Every structure is written in structure tokens, then in C-alpha cells.
Amino acid sequence: xxxxxxxxxxxxxxxxxxxxxxxxxxxxxxxxxxxxxxxxxxxxxxxxxxxxxxxxxxxxxxxxxxxxxxxxxxxxxxxxxxxxxxxxxxxxxxxxxxxxxxxxxxxxxxxxxxxxxxxxxxxxxxxxxxxxxxxxxxxxxxxxxxxxxxxxx
Length: 153
Fold this sequence. Notes:
Number of domains: 2
CATH architecture of the largest domain: Orthogonal Bundle
Radius of gyration: 20 Å
Helix content: 55-70%
CATH superfamily of the largest domain: Winged helix-like DNA-binding domain superfamily/Winged helix DNA-binding domain
Strand order of the largest sheet: 1-3-2
Number of helices: 6
């Protein structure tokens, strides 16, 4: 085997895990600063991505959780003052209940997002424009190859 390639792979994965660990710590700190747990934030994010309305079962499947676990998360989001989500009968099928993102839930989601974007802005501002573009292209290319060669269900 190519020793240089093996060394590059080891260095790449070490750097990758360092990045992931650092970003998780930062993301969790931003969530905590906005009185959210990671599962609660991801529920708000999912609702935002689906137009502010989704069934509990659909959210649970997207996050690989049971309906019971998701119901607990939703209850905690409902019990905040003001509530971050509400449950309403589905307009398509009155037998089903949808989780609906409230204005406060939208604001809390965007507050976390803005905190993250401000930090990214501060770091990326330090790089010259072309270097930022080159870096982004390399990252996009890596994820494109990864997705093509090793698709995730």
C-alpha cells in the first residue's frame, strides 16, 4: 500500500473528527444559550424545512426515533412559555395531528442559526475571496464523491 496515501487518510480522518467534535460543542453551546436541547433544535429545524407543519410520526422517522420519544420532545417544546410548537388537527385528515411551528419557535430557530452564521462569517472573513471559493469547491467535490461512491439510504 502507498504509505503517503495511508498517512494522508489518517490525517484526513483525524482532522475530520476534530472538526466534527468542535462543531458539535459549538452548536450545542449555541442551542443551550437559546434554551434548547439538540433534539429540540432539530425538531424546529425539521419543521422549518417542511413549511412549519409535520406529523409527529414523520418527524420521528426523519430522526430515527420512536413516536413516543418524539412525543416527549414535542411536549417539552409545547410547554415553553411562549410555546415553540403547537399540535393541531391535520387539515388533510382530521384523524391526524400535526406539529406546527409557532412564531416563537421560528424566532428561536433563527436565533441559533444567526449565532452560527455570525461565527462562520467572522472566520471566513479572514480568508481572501478566491481562497474561500477554492476551499468551498474542494469541500463540495469531496461530498459529491462521497455521495456518489457511498450513498446513504
